[in-house]
Design brief:
By secondary structure, the protein is an alpha+beta fold. The chain folds into two domains: 7-49 and 99-165 and 278-348, 3-Layer(bba) Sandwich (FAD/NAD(P)-binding domain); 168-276, D-Amino Acid Oxidase, Chain A, domain 2 (2-Layer Sandwich). The chain is built from nine helices and 18 strands. The strands form four sheets. Strands 6-2-1-10-18-17 form a six-stranded mixed beta sheet. Helix 1 packs parallel to helix 4 (99-107). The protein binds flavin-adenine dinucleotide. Flavin-adenine dinucleotide (FAD) binds next to helix 1, strand 3, strand 16 and helix 8. Flavin-adenine dinucleotide is lined by residues 12-18, 36-39, 46, 49-50, 119-121, 150-153, 156, 174, 272, 274, 293-295, 301, 304-308, 310.
């Protein structure tokens, strides 16, 4: 009996969405998966990340929950409205974790040899029945039967499929840093657990990102969210770029927050200018390309769950592509199924 020829899948982007998708797709033996990441090595821009029930569910499905530890958010003022079931995922509760911990847990589950670094996608071309041609900055090329656009907020794949779709700067920037908790110990009455501080032009968020007792000197996250940032040409590249203490500190703060900002060593703050755009009518194109994560729903960090959405997208895409085994269902139809499940979800948001 002649076996099914392998279908090649190119995932562009190695964020939580791309890594989660790689894990899920590598479990389908009829696919040959390659993940192309533009950075020369694993790099996680950002500080902490909130993970709650849905995150645990998808991490469990991916087999990647182990090693994801963080500070409990149970002492933040939050209420859970509905408990449909008392699942294991729920009982673990919400945490705020170092982003690198989530990334390492996912990376550990991606089979070896799947990820190619320093592969920045510059251009892609529809070869109709022959797949998609991908052209990278290092002047190499690849052809794939299926392409997964997991290339984040400023996705080149979204721009290629939906040429009229535009993002706009929201006027919001997030300045983020992780510092040893001990470096804030000298500040009287600084909150030592998760807290929100609301001000005229923005808010400040302080949070544990390490499990109690897990390390000798746990890290603490400070995020300064500014609502009135000026727009400037080239703002799109303000994603994880260094910001000076003067820039972060140039707002009206409670003295305790001023002290916290100035306790951060110069050069540690990173700025993330947030962009948003209209919802896409569909998440697929060219009958063989799917968008996932921030590439598919430019929500600009709203809901604080974008990484979870991205990993869920990858898992559901894998379930849809599973149907294509032995050509039982064409890829185009499988992508329709993916779109029919995820588009209404994002439409509700
Ligand atoms: C201030 C802020 C706070 C947030 N807080 C939370 C939170 O608490 N919880 C949560 O779940 N989410 C949070 N989010 C959202 C979350 O960070 C994103 O939704 C999530 O990272 C999306 O994952 P992704 O894999 O789709 O994209 P990304 O994480 O952006 O990854 C995209 C990857 O693609 C690569 N790439 C980009 N272009 C190319 C190219 N041309 N070629 C090759 N590779 C490329 C990038 O280098 C990157 O590795 C927050 C976002 C912001 C801005």
């Amino acid at each position: 009996m002649v076996g099914q020829a392998l279908t090649s899948v190119a995932i562009i982007g190695g964020g939580p969405g791309g890594l989660g998708t790689a894990i899920a797709l590598c479990q389908l033996p009829f696919l040959r998966v390659t993940l192309y990441e533009k950075n020369p090595e694993p790099r996680e821009a950002g500080a902490g990340i909130s993970l709650s029930t849905n995150a645990w569910k998808v991490l469990d499905l991916l087999g990647a929950s182990d090693g994801v530890k963080g500070g409990s958010k149970s002492n933040t003022h939050q209420s859970i409205i509905k408990h449909p079931e008392n699942s294991d995922a729920q009982s673990r509760g919400a945490i705020r974790a170092r982003r690198t911990r989530l990334q390492s847990a996912l990376l550990a589950k991606v089979p070896e040899g799947i990820i190619q670094y320093s592969k920045k996608l510059l251009f892609m071309e529809d070869l109709t029945i022959n797949g998609t041609r991908l052209v990278f900055e290092d002047q190499t090329e690849a052809i794939a039967d299926i392409v997964v656009g997991a290339d984040g907020l400023h996705s080149i794949i979204r721009k290629t499929l939906f040429t009229h779709h535009e993002l706009h700067f929201t006027g919001n920037s997030a300045f983020r840093v992780l510092v040893p908790k001990s470096s804030l110990a000298h500040i009287p009455e600084i909150t030592s657990t998760t807290s929100w501080w609301w001000g005229k032009d923005g808010h400040v968020y302080l949070s544990d990102v390490d499990e109690e007792g897990d390390t000798d000197d746990p890290l603490f996250e400070i995020t300064v969210r500014s609502y009135c940032e000026p727009h400037s040409p080239g703002k799109t590249v303000f994603w994880g770029i260094p910001a000076t203490n003067e820039k972060v500190g140039s707002r009206e703060y409670d003295q305790r927050l001023r002290d916290a900002v100035s306790a951060v060593p110069e050069g540690e703050w990173k700025e993330f200018a947030t962009f948003a755009g209209p919802r896409l009518e569909r998440l697929t194109g060219w009958k063989k390309v799917a968008l996932i994560g921030d590439a598919s729903h430019p929500l600009s960090g709203a809901f604080g769950s974008g990484a979870t959405f991205a990993m869920e997208d990858g898992w559901i895409l894998a379930r849809a592509l599973e149907l294509t085994q032995n050509a039982a269902c064409p890829v185009e139809e499988a992508l329709e199924i993916f779109d029919h499940i995820r588009s209404p979800y994002y439409s509700k948001m």
